[in-house]
Amino acid sequence: MASTFIIPLTTLPVGTRNLGPAAAGDAERSILLTIDRTVAGGLNSLTPASEVQADVMQSGDSGVTWRLQVGGTMPGGVLGNSSTLRVDLFPGMARLLRVTLTVSGPSPVAVAGSLVTT
Amino acid sequence: MAVAFDAVGPSSAGAGGTSISSLSWTHTNVAGNAALTVGCSYDNSTDAGVTATCKVDSVLITAATGNVESDAQTAGFAKAWTALGLASGARTVLVTYSSAGADLEGGSVSYTGAGGFAAAATASGTLSTSASVTVTGTAASSLVFGFAAAGDSINATSAPATSRFVNNLVGSAGNSTGNCAGSTSAGGGSVTCAWTLASSTNSAAIEVTAAAAGGSPQAQPGQTWLRRFHHRQVLLPPGPPAAAAPGAAGTIQPAPTFPQPRRRPARAVWAGISGSTGIRGTSQPYPAAQFPRRKPARAVWAKITGGISPGGSPQEWPTVPIPRLRPARAVVEFTPVTTTNQVPAVAPAGTIQPPPTLTPPRLRPARAVVEFTPVTTTNLVPGQQQPPPTFPQPRRRLVRAVIRGQAGTIGIPGKPQPEPTFPQPRRKPARAVIEFTPVTTVNQAGAAGPAGTLQPRPTLTWPRKRPARASTALLLHPVRTVNQPAAPLVVPVNPLPNGGSTEGALWEMARTGKWPERPPGFGPVGPVPSSSAVPPKPGERGWVGKRKRRFSWPKQDE
After folding, report:
1. pLDDT above 90: percentage of residues in chain B
2. Closest partner residue to A87 among B13, B18, B90, by Cβ?
3. Strand intervals (E) in B189-310
4. A2–chain B nearest CA distance, Å
5. Can you give the residue range of the structural domain that contains B38?
6. Domain boundary among B200, B229, B258
7. How do residues B147-162 score in pLDDT, each as one tens digit?
8. Which residues of B touch A86 (CB under 8 A)?
9. How far does the CA of residue A117 sit from the closest CA of chain B (Å)?
10. Which residue of A has its CA nearest to B13?
């Protein structure tokens, strides 16, 4: 059963912010992170000097330690409607997911999107 | 020791993303001292000039291939990297491109027992339902890693290869790549890695041979690819040479994070060297006394006999001085120059000019002078005077807005200015004040008085012409008054009945029940006793009426 965790429209300042954590079902195997680039102040409205490094982290010990599952650099500029990252979850039970967004560049970046587990 | 598969990262599905410029995942190798191969595909409408690097735990690793273009076009390419000596545990693999791609896909495979990598073989195919690449001359103890990228989904890995990961991120929506797969095949002679594709599409394939310790097979273009694609196979320039020697056990020591100090400089020793270093002058003589060495200059073998030194005889000492190849330090060479003072010259003839007896004029004025050129101004031609405005002219600027503790009456937002806490000086005096300095006058001494005689004082009292001031006081003259003779006292006749007395009137009222018709001013005040009442006696007092008013009857003689 798929679960969707909404990333509300948020303007992120330069720096790192963690979103979540969210619980992943024991039967879910993969994750798909989608960042909308078309929102006002989003990546498509910025220059390549602005970047958002998105990392999907997974924890199997209730958030004590986190392991990178997939990460990607989403640069500014018109590059389609969305940036996505897809990877399988690491097997386990009672897993937690967290999205770490790191904004770099001259200005804040507005992001919105979702994290879907299937 | 044969090379064996260790782990795949991040999983059998690989990793992928769209509209990104880098892709990272975690590779967890089980064994220590593992070897790693990384494959990643870049898909974009154009990839001209795009470069790619790969890091494992922030350390750059070796590129096994260049950009292997799919069908030799510029709409997507595959690239592979290799690394040795990974410790067991989770490792972060980061593939970074110089420009963002429409999509990136990748995966990694680790091995045990690998001592190095052979040069990679690559292939580029177009519009085919399969992709393959062949490497020849592989050792039986090696393992071959195959990586393919295609513009459509990769369905399966052809036997005998073993699929390690498949990532069909974009399926048929890829440009020239967009989907990738990795596999391993056992070594031994010619090895072909092949995959079947969902549709006829472009593809690129890479084959990297993980050689066992001590082996270093050279990959050669295979014939299988030629038969299937009917294109001339191009062997790309080999990547950096693979390490031939077996890697040391353990993990790679990371680079130091702080500057390392020099161990110790050897110190320079000057000892009896003359004329060979280019320094002019005499050299320092040998010391007369023997100075003990503070520390031995080198390791000294003592009391060890046999078995240590290599065989042969030691080199003889040189019989001639060996010049230094280079001076020990920077030397400035120069030629001494002797200078001679000039002979004193003869004094000039003539006399010394005397000092001037007059004060010479200043060459320049002592103070600043503004020099200007006279300017003749000419009045303008008389014209018509500008008539006065026919409407009120607004003030250009307000003199100054003054708020004196009145809130909300001027419309200026904000908090009104508080009353001053100290007296404010008047800007202008309230009234004109003439300030003067008192002057003391002094009569002139010794001056002669005016001529003539003083007028005598008047002997008569002169009436005042006018009163000094208005007065309301009157002059009262005593007046004698005479009273008029006393007039006879008129006593009005009492018209009351019954003899005209009050008593009679009361009796008349008691009898008739009403006050007789008489002039006012007589009789008692208050209600009259009823007719049934007992007639009071003269001088008797009592109460009458419902309200019990007090009354008093006059006596008989009153």
Report:
1. 17
2. B13
3. 189-212
4. 18
5. 4-229
6. B229
7. 989 888 998 888 888 9
8. 15-17, 169
9. 15
10. A88
Best of A46, A53, A88 to mutate (most B CBs within 10 Å, chain B): A88
Task: Assign 3-class secondary structure to B368-427.
Answer: CCCCCCCCCCCCCCCCCCCCCCCCCCCCCCCCCCCCCCCCCCCCCCCCCCCCCCCCCCCC
Would you call B19 and A80 a contact, using CB atoms and an 8 Å cutoff? yes
The pLDDT tens digits of the residues spanning A8-67 come to 999 999 999 999 899 999 999 999 999 999 999 999 999 999 999 999 999 999 999 999
**Residue B257 and residue B77: Cα distance in Å, rounded?**
36
**pLDDT tens per residue, range B61-112:** 999 888 988 877 888 999 999 998 888 999 999 999 999 999 999 999 999 9
Chain centre to alpha carbon of residue B327 = 56
| B287 falls within a domain | no
Query: Which three-class secondary structure state does DSSP give residue B5?
Result: strand
Where do we find the tokens 């290799």?
Answer: B82
List, for residues B109-119, the tens digit of each pLDDT value. 999 988 888 88
Cβ atoms of B222 and B89 closer than 8 Å: no
Whether ipTM > 0.95 holds is yes
Examine the fold and report which residue of B197, B229, B261 is the final residue of a domain before the chain moves on: B229
What confidence score (pLDDT) does residue B25 get?
95
Class of the A3-117 domain?
Answer: mainly beta
What burial class does residue B220 get, using C-beta atoms within 10 Å of its C-beta: 0-12 exposed, 13-18 middle, 19+ buried?
Answer: middle
- Give the C-alpha separation, B202 to B151, whole Å: 6
Residue with token string 């009361």: B506
Q: Which of B26, B108, B179 to mutate to test the interface with A (most CBs of A within 10 A)?
A: B26
Total domains, chain B: 2
